[in-house]
Hints:
Elements: H1 5-23, H2 27-43, H3 48-73, H4 77-80, E1 92-95, E2 103-108, E3 111-117, E4 126-134, E5 137-142
Parallel strand pairs: 3-5
Antiparallel strand pairs: 1-4, 2-3, 4-5
Helix pairs in contact: 1-2, 2-3
Amino acid sequence: xxxxxxxxxxxxxxxxxxxxxxxxxxxxxxxxxxxxxxxxxxxxxxxxxxxxxxxxxxxxxxxxxxxxxxxxxxxxxxxxxxxxxxxxxxxxxxxxxxxxxxxxxxxxxxxxxxxxxxxxxxxxxxxxxxxxxxxxxxxxxxxxx
Length: 145
């Protein structure tokens, strides 16, 4: 059986998609796009250099584009302070006293939570809003009314 270059590129794309399904690495789908571009270049009659160039430009470009998009949108604070993801954001807590380092313990939802101050100036006792949940502590800001 004699397989042409286009068929080999399509098989490579399929293998990359299969590997992505097994590992869950989304970047393999981007590389599969590159292999598909190389298959189209081969079907159009392009030489091996054109096929490799198509695979590199499309696959590599997709990987770089996805990495930048993912890096720009997932800086960690987006979900930590997003009320649609974390229902604690926007809730009020009472702070009895602050430590010199801007940390305190607050009673929230029936248990003690570590909390940190994020705002301008020195924190004072009173009512605060939860603006984020980072790791295992609440991030608090002054309640403005």
